[in-house]
Write a structure and sequence with these properties.
Helices cover about 35% and strands about 20% of the residues. The protein has 18 helices and 17 strands. The strands form 6 sheets. It has a 5-stranded parallel beta sheet with strand order 5-13-10-8-9. The protein has a 4-stranded mixed beta sheet with strand order 14-15-16-17. The protein has a two-stranded parallel sheet with strand order 1-2. It has helices spanning about 1-10, 30-35, 45-50, 70-75, 100-110, 120-130, 145-155, 200-210, 225-235, 245, 280-285, 300-305, 310-320, 335-345, 350-360, 380, 415-420, 435-449; strands at about 60, 80-85, 140, 165, 175-180, 185-190, 195, 215-220, 240, 250-255, 265-270, 275, 290-300, 370-375, 390-395, 405-410, 425-430. The chain folds into 3 domains: about 40-130, no CATH class; about 140-320, P-loop containing nucleotide triphosphate hydrolases (Rossmann fold); about 335-449, Trna Endonuclease, Chain: A, domain 1 (3-Layer(aba) Sandwich). By secondary structure, the protein is α/β, with parallel strands linked by helices. The two termini are about 50 Å apart.
Length: about 450
């Protein structure tokens, strides 16, 4: 603001001139001197800019939600552009009516895939086309959420690269979990599309009744039908909307109502099946809207059986809230105690090759829940006595450290090595020196998720 005021004082700007919606474009040079910083949507920038005028600088925020059509038009009005966004958050909403036209244009003009309209946004397109040839900066300092709220997203989506600089309020926990009893609580909207869940609404209302201050609270859901019901039911002052509408916003407290009867609820189109509730981008946005309190409101079935990202979120909440977890004889992998060992231990050439294959597979988005460790004592991950041997590689969930699969390099009988029927305790796979090894590993992992 100081720089802006200094700029206005330094230039010769007439404060007497009056601008109206009808005349400002005809006097745009004078207008832009008077108001050197403008805000606009990408849809309206070209129509609200003076004729043949080019801005010195254009900044596009929330770029993951900006489709290619409006972005390209905005680019045409600027000399330089900075694009700000997060591909880990919600993407653009495409116009299905343009899908076939997009395909036809790609074929006719041989348009590179990175510049297609459908399923693409300007941030994704630039990263695809330019890769690392243009300056790119990760904004790793996080100031919104309390540490235990942002920690899940940091582990699950950002590979631990975020640094939480939010001032602590010294509360022991900023997380809550409500589970609606019963099954099939989600009901299809009788007069339209979507679902609503009255039991989850009642749980939220009961909790809100205990609060004395509700002016900075939001209740969000993936389903518009649920939001409509919430807006009619919640006390005045409580904000409620879909998660898509809440991207870019924040509240002191956020309730997230999953609504669905199971975590496999999905939306489907001709070429792609993507989870709706159990969607990484959607969950990341939902969690990170909350500054001081995040509350997940879900059903019994999701609580007990969810896999994927939603399952990881529940595992994290159970861990943080010290809730009982049914793991049988399996124990959490003590990641902290192995950290120095893994950094300093030398691997054989064969082990290095196997680790390279495993890490390559784990880079794929659908396996982002998992991490790999090596030379782990079996007694550290399975509750058994008098077992003194090490596993070659261990696959574990990086959120709650639950071991999920053991990989061995040779064809040694696992019952001889481990002195137990290992498959009765944890999944097991032998990595052989074969060209289709990656395919076999993916198949084994797909059975887990």
């Amino acid at each position: 603001m100081y720089c802006l005021k200094s700029h206005l004082k330094a230039i010769d700007v007439s404060l007497d001139k009056t601008f109206t919606p009808e005349n400002y474009r005809k006097n745009f040079t004078s207008f832009i001197k008077r108001f050197p910083i403008l805000t606009s949507s990408t849809y309206s920038l070209t129509t609200c800019t003076g004729f043949n005028y080019t801005y010195d600088y254009l900044i596009i925020d929330e770029a993951s939600q900006v489709n290619m059509g409006s972005a390209v038009l905005s680019f045409s009005k600027a000399k330089a552009v900075t694009v700000v966004g997060d591909l880990k958050q919600l993407p653009q909403i495409d116009n299905d009516m343009l899908k076939q036209m997009d395909k036809d244009l790609q074929r006719k003009y041989i348009i590179p895939k990175g510049f297609n309209y459908y399923g693409n946004n300007i941030l994704k397109a630039l990263k695809t086309h330019f890769n690392n040839t243009v300056p790119s900066t990760l904004l790793c300092e996080h100031y919104r959420c309390q540490a235990d709220i942002i920690r899940f997203s940091n582990l699950r989506f950002y590979e631990g690269r975020l640094v939480c600089l939010t001032k602590s309020d010294n509360e022991t926990s900023h997380l809550k979990l409500f589970v609606a009893e019963g099954c099939n609580n989600a009901i299809k909207n009788s007069i339209g599309t979507g679902f609503y869940n009255e039991k989850e609404i009642q749980l939220i209302k009961q909790d809100l009744e205990q609060k004395t201050e509700i002016s900075d609270i939001a209740v969000i859901s993936p389903y518009r039908c649920q939001v409509n019901k919430l807006q009619k039911s919640l006390p005045e002052g409580v904000d409620s909307d879909t998660i898509h509408k809440f991207q870019g916003r924040e509240k002191e407290e956020v309730y997230f109502s999953t609504v669905a009867n199971n975590a496999d609820d999905y939306m489907k189109n001709e070429e792609l099946i993507t989870h709706f509730v159990n969607n990484e981008n959607l969950l990341n946005v939902a969690i990170t809207r909350a500054k001081k309190q995040f509350t997940l409101v879900t059903c019994n079935n999701i609580y007990a059986n969810a896999k994927g990202c939603l399952g990881d979120l529940l595992s994290y909440l159970k861990l943080q809230l010290r809730l009982k977890r049914e793991w049988g004889k399996v124990k959490p992998y003590p990641e902290f105690f192995y950290k120095d060992y893994l950094e300093n231990h030398q691997l054989s050439d064969k082990e290095k090759d196997a680790l390279t294959i495993l890490n390559k597979v784990l880079e794929e988005k659908r396996y982002s829940s998992y991490a790999v460790a090596y030379h782990v004592a079996l007694s550290d991950i399975i509750d058994l006595e008098d077992i003194h041997t090490f596993v070659s590689f261990l696959l574990y969930n990086k959120i709650d450290k639950r071991p999920v699969m053991i990989f061995e390099l040779d064809k040694e009988n696992p019952e001889t090595k481990y002195q137990i029927n290992i498959n009765s305790v944890i999944s097991y796979l032998t990595i052989k020196d074969e060209k289709d090894e990656e395919k076999l590993i993916r198949k084994a992992l797909d059975e887990l998720i």
